[in-house]
Amino acid sequence: MKKILGTTIVLLGAAALSATAATVQIDLSGYDSGSDVNSSFQAYRGDPSAMANHLNEWLANSSGWCGSKANTSSETSSYFKSAVGNEDGSVTVTYTNRQGYGGSGVGLKVSLDAAGYSADAFSSLTFTVDLATSTGGTYRVYLAYQTENGWQAVESQATSGTITVTADLSGNKLTSENVYVFVESNQGRGNDSIFTASMTGELASVPEPATASLGLLGLAALMVRRRRS
Predict the structure, then answer these.
(1) Distance between CA atoms of 56 and 152, rounded to whole angstroms?
(2) In the predicted model, is pLDDT for residue 142 greater than 60?
(3) Which spans are transmembrane here (predicted)?
């Protein structure tokens, strides 16, 4: 009987170690405002690390979407137009896809803490942009984040359709609650571009009660009662 009981308890411990990962949505629907804040980002295209540091300098103290032209000219046209939150947690943004001035773009600081999650709980983050209305040129999408190795970014580009970027955090956890997303374009036709943005995260595996462990718990209790009797 002692052997059976010991085996049961070992199995119970193994079952209790079962774990699962969960995909969660980071709600962007509340980011429904913005303004123009010049950043002159053209020099950082093609260098994700430099772009990540630039986005941190540009957006760290911002609230809402920030629109900007790409170069350092004194031109003062409007870039950010509107942002509307959606019931599914995404946000639809309109900005002017500038034909000149090196292009234009809109960036946003996203607070993971405000979304209800601890930054170091994520094993990955994914930012998706659906270009509902594009007006020519090349669109680039960035997701910038900080780990113990400093600020870094992932980027992808397309001329239309859906653009997705994913940060793999499985071996290097986030060290800042803030991440930055940036959508920019150049060689466009000067008209308004519209995109819908969404973000998801993969939470690192966490222990959870397994169905098998509940059965084993009952069996262990039965073995204890029989032993005592």
Answers:
(1) 10
(2) yes
(3) none
Residue among 81, 97, 71 nearest 34 (CA): 81
Angle at 117 between CA 115 and CA 121, to 5 degrees: 150
Look at residues 137, 149, 123 and name the one whose alpha carbon lies nearest to residue 193. Answer: 137
Domains, the chain, in order of start with CATH, read 3-12+19-227 (2.60.120.380)
Rounded to whole angstroms, the Cα distance separating 44 from 58 reads: 13
**For residue 225, pLDDT beyond 80:** no
Nearest to 69 by CA among 90, 49, 39: 39
The proportion of the chain whose per-residue pLDDT surpasses 70, expressed as a percent, equals: 79
CB 188 within 8 A of CB 99: yes
111-127: b (≥16 Cβ within 10 Å) or e = ebeebebebebbbbbbb
| Residue type (1 letter), 123 | S
Q: Contact at 8 Å (CB) between 93 and 197?
A: yes
Instruction: Look up the pTM and report it.
Output: 0.81
Average pLDDT, the chain: 85
pLDDT at residue 72 in the model: 80
